Amino acid sequence: MYPIIICHIMGSVDGRLLTERWTEPFGGKSKGELMRIYSAIGSKLDIDAWMFGKTTLCEAYFPKKYHVKDTTPLEHAQFYVARRTSDRLFVVADPDADILYESSSVRGDSIVAILPEKAPAIYLEYLQKKDISYVFAGEKGDDLRVAMQTLAEEFGVESLSLQGGGVIDGAFLKAGLIDELSLVLYPGIDGSADSTSIFHYIGKGNPSERQSLELLSVQPMTDGVVWLRYKFHKEGLK
Q: Which domain range does residue 131 map to?
């Protein structure tokens, strides 16, 4: 049992995510004004949880690291459900288990961290004191299927909006977990060969193997923004 996962992302017309590299909008609008269209679309998605990758979260909210001297893990890692202060959850993948949280919520939504089973016991104790829930994703923290199953079965998450960055999007693509792509096209170009793409898989093999997209809708928005929705079809993936 897994949540329905919608990858909701805004990219340039050449599929890049680094907003500072995008060309300026035509007609005098700012990038921020156009990006608010993306946020408005996201607020309409009927989801129980939303998610960033670690880099995206730390750049925007929690840039400091939690340093520990004793890295001894628990003998038997067990998920933890903290006091919940919101109906919707915010989820972050933290395979290094070292985010220093200044709050137990993001935009008012209670945090659930995805961690490796080898996370230091001291760090888990810190999260519990901060009222932050956590689940485990295998020994290295990269088994997203295990993490999503725990979110569904223990936290009641039936739907999740995956909002980047490209590395976590690529990891979910490789795991065959994405059910729908909600792609908001920004009317500008990056053009750089080394810029992060919408799906930026780091690893071997083809992450999109045996997956195909069915176009569900195309909706022109204001100021040249276009909203595309696709359904994922997965051949032989469970």
A: 51-143
> DSSP characters for the chain?
---EEEEEEEEETTSB--GGGSPPPTTS--HHHHHHHHHHHHHHS--SEEEE-HHHHHHHT---B---S--PBPSS---B-PPP--SSEEEEE-TT--B--S-SEETTEEEEEEE-TT-BHHHHHHHHHTT-EEEE-TTTT--HHHHHHHHHHHH---EEEE---HHHHHHHHHHT---EEEEEEES-----TTSPBSS---SSS-TTTTEEEEEEEEEE-GGG-EEEEEEEEESS--
Rounded-to-integer distance, Cα 3 and Cα 222, Å: 31
Total domain count for the chain?
2
Q: What is the pLDDT along the chain (238 residues), one digit of tens a residue?
A: 899 999 999 999 999 999 999 999 999 999 999 999 999 999 999 999 999 989 999 999 999 999 999 999 998 889 999 999 999 999 999 999 999 999 999 999 999 999 999 999 999 999 999 999 999 999 999 999 999 999 999 999 999 999 989 999 999 999 999 999 999 999 999 999 999 999 999 989 999 999 999 999 999 999 999 999 999 999 866 5
CATH number for 216 = 3.40.430.10
Find where tokens 């880099």 sit: 55
Establish if 152 belongs to a structural domain: no
Shared domain for 66 and 184, answered yes or no, is: no
Phi, psi of 183 (to 5 degrees): -105, 115
